[in-house]
Design brief:
The protein has about 375 residues and is of the alpha+beta class. Helices cover about 50% and strands about 15% of the residues. The strands form 3 sheets. A 4-stranded mixed beta sheet has the order 1-4-5-8. Helix 5 packs antiparallel against helix 6 and helix 5 runs antiparallel to helix 8. The chain is globular. The protein starts with 6 loop residues before the first helix and ends with a helix. Bound molecules: flavin-adenine dinucleotide (FAD). The site of flavin-adenine dinucleotide has 21 residues, from strand 1, strand 3 and helix 12.
Length: about 375
């Protein structure tokens, strides 16, 4: 398998990594983590570059990069290199926007996609419910048509970003009796009958996450995305791409965490030596480097497989499983290597460590990923 980037991919890499270093240095996103602020400035700059529309076809105003998963993986590696939370602030909207582009009507595209591409609006996705996370098809919140309107009742949880102004929630709701009979409604977050409650979490402090309560929430019939009872299919369509993007941002962040640790060990002394002169610490870094290389190649192998049009769910699951474990190990070793200083936000390691733990849950837990991998094996 050839892992050489093409000239175009290498140039794109320079462009997005350069952009993130220049426009959104680490001290800014650290500040956003501490203050729980959304990176509005970055979001707008991304919109100005046209990058919010990377997954939207050109005929709908985007750049059409969904046909090149390697280019998209490079983008996610760059936006995640200093913060998985920052990457999520950008990526969460992009996937739902792609769904609206693919299945929405011209009116829905005009109403939701056009302001999104300008950086004036955001999207979020609401699948999880208090009793159903990994078992997403166990969701119970309902939508029923009554006098030409949708009436929605129920309770969603963990809907990331739903509290930000001008956010549209793509809400998966039960519209039939069958296990997978779900539809997706496009719900502006200021819809009467919807209550959005912010949750206080250890991670995703900039994006933020929410509980949603729907009490006879009414929406016009035109709020339906695509067709009735096709919601499960629509949401599953970009699952591999979404998992690939998370894995890409994890290897980006793992590189930064490992570089930070190596720098610290090279600068700090104890017992008359640099910490990096202690072989036990150096070997630990060597082990982390080896694991990171393995995760890196796996991510780009998975991206290449999707690009070739192959069925890549099991390979993508492997990439995300290994990337999340690698980042967690590197951040854990970083916490140990930095001693007490690891506790301070200005060293960033505690932030990487917190976000790394969530990386084993969001976008499919590591247990669910193992089940996907196991299904592809012969037992
Ligand atoms: C910060 C944050 C942001 C989120 N953002 C969103 C969002 O924007 N939209 C959204 O819809 N959801 C979101 N989620 C929800 C997330 O997708 C779920 O947390 C995740 O799917 C796991 O579901 P759960 O937490 O209910 O855990 P559960 O599904 O209850 O799982 C608990 C444990 O049991 C394990 N387990 C479950 N089933 C199996 C099995 N079959 N075999 C082996 N082990 C199993 C799991 O791996 C896990 O370790 C977010 C969550 C968090 C924490």
């Amino acid at each position: 398998m050839d892992f050489q980037f093409t000239n175009e991919q290498s140039m794109w890499r320079d462009v997005v990594f350069g952009f993130m270093n220049r426009e959104f240095p680490r001290d800014k996103l650290r500040h956003h983590d501490q203050t729980r602020e959304f990176p509005e400035e970055l979001y707008r700059k991304m919109a100005n570059e046209g990058w919010l529309g990377l997954l939207i076809p050109e005929e709908h105003g985007g750049l059409g990069m969904d046909s090149d998963p390697v280019m998209f993986a490079i983008f996610c590696e760059a936006i995640g290199k200093d913060s998985l939370d920052t990457a999520a602030c950008i990526m969460t909207s992009m996937f739902t926007a792609a769904n609206v582009s693919r299945h929405g009507t011209a009116e829905q595209r005009e109403r939701f996609l056009t302001p999104f591409l300008r950086g004036d609006a955001k999207f979020c996705i609401s699948i999880s419910e208090p009793q159903s996370g990994s078992d997403a098809a166990g969701a119970r919140s309902t939508a029923r048509l009554e006098g030409g309107e949708w009436v929605v009742n129920g309770n969603k949880v963990w809907c990331s970003g739903a509290h930000h102004p001008n956010s549209c929630i793509a809400m998966m709701l039960r519209t039939g009796e069958g296990r997978y009979d779900f539809s997706v409604l496009l719900v502006p977050n200021d819809t009467p009958g919807l209550e959005v409650q912010k949750m206080d979490t250890l991670v995703r402090r900039s994006l933020g996450t929410t509980s949603l309560f729907m009490d006879d929430m009414r929406l016009p019939a035109s709020a339906l995305l695509g067709e009735v009872n096709k919601g499960w299919q629509y949401i599953g369509e970009h699952l591999d791409f979404e998992r690939l993007s998370i894995a890409s941002s994890q290897i980006g962040n793992a590189r930064t965490a490992l570089d930070d640790t190596v720098k610290y060990l090279s600068e700090r002394s104890a017992f008359g030596k640099k910490l990096s002169d202690f072989q036990v610490l150096k070997h630990r870094m060597a082990e982390d480097q080896a694991r990171l290389s393995a995760a890196y190649y796996l991510v780009y192998a998975a991206a290449s497989a999707i690009a070739r049009g192959e069925k890549a769910s099991a390979l993508v699951a492997q990439a995300k499983l290994i990337s999340s474990q690698t980042l967690f190990q590197i951040a854990t070793n970083g916490m140990q290597a930095l001693g007490g200083y690891a506790q301070l936000p200005e060293y960033d390691m505690e932030r990487y460590f917190r976000e790394a733990k969530h990386g084993m849950v969001g976008g499919g837990t590591n247990e669910i990923l193992r089940s996907i991998i196991a299904k592809s094996m012969r037992f």
